[in-house]
Amino acid sequence: MNTAHSPYEIREGVPSVDVFRRLRTDAGLSDKDPDAVALALPHTWYGVILHHEGEPIGMGRIIGDGGTAFQIVDICVHPAHQGRGLGRRIMAALTEELERRAPATAYVSLIADGPARFLYEKFGFADTAAHDSIGMFRLMGGS
Questions:
Q1: Cβ-Cβ contacts under 8 Å for 41 (sequence gap 6 or more)
Q2: Distance between CA 110 and CA 127 in Å, rounded?
Q3: Gap between the Cα atoms of 71 and 74, Å rounded
Q4: Per-residue pLDDT tens for 60-78?
Q5: Please, what is the end-to-end C-alpha distance for the chain in angstroms?
Q6: Cα(27)–Cα(31) distance, rounded to whole angstroms?
């Protein structure tokens, strides 16, 4: 998975609560309550952390029931390292694991923010509206 002589390395796993929150906010994603993150991270089906010279600078996770439904979440790369194909490497690691372990009938979803949709399309994801469905969400707590 790692390119020869690259200062970047993808490692399987999930970050600590503090690193998770920092990676999200550094990349411009919303912060999450630390107690909620502590509950969530152990339920990750598969996760990767992207390191630059040993320092975590990106991540991605797959959550789900392990059989019928999966969701790709928390894809992020620090802005100083964006534009180098690193998000693509994270997505490749996640989709490779899905292809290896998830049942062929599993439904895999994600929410694409802004231009990230173009990256996800390269991995076979399409608008749900194209299949007579629409993606919906609800934030608990109202905002």
A1: 14, 15, 17, 20
A2: 10
A3: 10
A4: 999 999 999 999 999 999 9
A5: 38
A6: 10
Q: Indicate if the alpha-carbon torsion angle 6, 25, 20, 62 is positive or negative.
A: negative
* pLDDT mean over 29-41: 97
Please name the residue that has the structure tokens 């390119």: 3
Residue 71 CA to residue 63 CA, distance in Å, equals 5
Q: What radius of gyration, in Å, describes the C-alpha atoms of the chain? A: 15
- 57 close to 25: Cβ distance less than 8 angstroms: no
Q: Which amino acid is residue 14, in one-letter code? A: V
Q: Give per-residue burial for 41-79: e unless 16+ CB within 10 Å, then b.
A: beebbbbbbbbbeeebbbbbbbbbeeeeebebbbbbbbe
Task: Please write the tens of the pLDDT for every residue from 100-110.
Answer: 999 999 999 99
- Report the predicted TM-score, pTM, of the whole model to 2 decimal places: 0.88
What are the residues whose beta carbons fall under 8 Å from the beta carbon of 136, sequence distance 6 or more?
none
Domains of the chain and any CATH numbers: 8-123 (3.40.630.30)
